[in-house]
Amino acid sequence: MRKRVNYVSLMFLFTLILGYNAQAQTIADRITKRDVQPKVERMPNIINTLLHDEYAPAISPDGRTLVYQSNAGGKTWEYYRLWQSMRDTVTGFWTKPSPIDEINGDFKQGDIYGGPSLSYDGKTLYFFAKMGEGSEDIYQSTKGTDGKWSKPEKVAGAVNTGEYEGFPSISPDGMFLYFMRKKDGGSSSNSGSAESDKGGSKTKYPSCYKLMVAKRKLDGSFGEPTELPSPIPGDCDKHVRIMPDGQSLFFSSTRTWLSPKDSKDFDLYYSAMEPGGAWTAPVLTDMSPWVRTTMYSYQPDMLVSVAPNDNPHVLAYFSSYRGASHELFTYPLQERFKPKRTCWFNATVVDSATGAKLKPTVKVTNLTREPLSYEKYAEQGKFKTVLTESNKYRIVFELDDYEPVTKVVDLTKDISEWECSAMIKMRKKGVQATITVLDGLTNEVIAESNAEIKPDDANGKVSEFKKTGPGKFFALLNPGTTYTANGSADQYEPASISLDLKNKVAGDTINREIYLFDLSKIVFQNINFNTARPRTMDEKELDASLLPKARQELDKVHKFMTDYPRISIRIEAHTDDRGSDDYNQGLSERRAAAARYYLTKVKGIPESRIEVRAFGEKSPMVPNNSQANWALNRRVEFKPQIKK
């Protein structure tokens, strides 16, 4: 954007300045009163300097940080550097601008740094630069915790070529980089504004560019850029700027079929992505002709940056050429050009069992505007992105050895219903087991119950175990092995079940129940036996040997099984320790068989509802050290259970 300033133009400029303020204010007031346009305001003199260009503003979303290119600050007027100014949050005044030395570096004649674009969080600055020989390329710099910018680096990927790439503009989510690239066979200038180099707009051969966009890949680099599709390209285009909503843009263009009659100036156009992904036909903004007629701008070569969160107005910051230099202005955007509202979506991502911070891959699918979908890595333990009003999103978190987690965020709803934060708990892959502890008589959940799961061998592992509700428990288990699940509750007899996962694979689910019986409601006295004679007895003889009290107890068991037909009984028979192990084992088997015979053959209970176990002398109730204790250990016990 080289400039030639002679004494005649200087005299003209000074004369123009004398009458500018009053006349411009009068015109602006008149137009405002007619409700045709809001007022364009020139930025203060601390920003706009006499006879120097202030160009290509980039404003942070909150309107507090301004970065732009300027040739101020030296004798070499025709070469450009990046400058920044901060707005005081109390007074609203801008600080004195200063060059960003960390980026401009060892500035040499012939270098150029320009076309800045701030990321939505203000921590990354994109710009183009020409350093020494070669063409312009796009660079980036990040702001450290000390507020200083890092040394510039070329953006990674396929954006930069041996030709001109300039004036980048980054989407709010940081995933799409818009920029302009020299047209094949066309000319270009260092600033992308060759028209203003010649002091006017009606040049014979203006510099024209292709408006490009590149999508960031998972590795952080940008993929192969593509030209913005029809209907955006016009006769001659440049300076594309994506807005903070990521789905509307402004750009400069000459379009004889849309521009004011006989106008060959670059005007500012607007387009937005519709649901489905197509761009709307470009609309000539009201700003361009109004600035041309009221601001004495020969050619409103405007680069727009918008501060959507700078209340009470959404201001557009733009530069415009006024005969001798470019200056910066602000303009309250009309409602139809305001970017859609956005929300910072913040997700905390942790292991569901340990709480450890995780770094998954996140796939963000825009279900409304599919071309704006992308995937990226989360930071350790957190994921942040910008989501836009009028869109519905499906956000999937994926990580090796973990089950994917899907979150749907619907910003088509009223803003009061937006969900802009989430706790993402990722569960390791495995068999997902749900255990419910129930009352064996009523089949109701035992709310205050407890449970545990233990592996039966070294191959088993309980990756996660937690109580998920009254009487409900969740466990994440290894497939291909077996486990034992134990349930317990006050006043209930503990119970266990086996979990056989030998034929299960990761991702399978199982649902099992543990039935407990309230011992205060089920009272069966143990059946005791006299010392058995040392000879084999058949079932009838054992039945005949049952004591009368034992028969009474078996009758109670029969009534219980009749009242609760879904409940089965396990008969467990025991002996004292007198006699050999083999003898006692056989004796306990015959005693269990005698009880089963009475219940099935005499009382008519189906055999399928009776299970018998004989323990011999292995499980004494009390020590075998007296006649009384021997009698207690000679017993048959009854254990209710639910058979599926």
From TrEMBL:
Residues 530-644 form the OmpA-like domain. This is Outer membrane protein OmpA. It comes from Thermoflexibacter ruber. PROSITE patterns: OMPA_2. Keywords: Cell outer membrane, Membrane, Signal. Transmembrane segments: none annotated. Its main location: membrane. It is found in: Cell outer membrane. SUPFAM superfamilies: DPP6 N-terminal domain-like, OmpA-like. The keyword Cell inner membrane does not apply. Pfam families: OmpA (PF00691), PD40 (PF07676). One of its GO terms (cellular component) is cell outer membrane. Residues 1-24 form the signal peptide.
